[in-house]
Amino acid sequence: MTTFEARIELLPGTVAPDVYDPSQGRIPLDDFVVSRFRDGSPASYYGDLSWNRTPYDPDGRTRFLHFTYWDHGDLTPQRDELTREIRWMMFLLIYLRRSDALSNSSLEGYLVALRRLARLCEAGGVRLQDALADPALMTGCAENAAHLSSIMATVVTFLRSLGREQVGFEAAGKSADAALKAIYRKWCDNSKQYAPIPTRIYSMILSVLSDEIEAFEDAADRLLRVYQDCRHDPLLGREASRQQVIRKRMNLTEGAVRPRLASLLPEYGLDEFFAARGTAPTLHGLSSLFREALLIASLQIQAFTGMRHNEVMALPFNCLETIERDGRPHHIIKGRITKLTKGKVKRTQWVTSEAGRRAVLLAQRFAEAVYLASGVTPSRDASQPSPGFLFISSQLVASRPELVATNLHLNEFVDLRARLQPAITDADLCELEQIDPHRAWRSEEAFQAGRPWT
Question: How big is the chain by its Cα radius of gyration, in Å?
Answer without folding.
Answer: 28
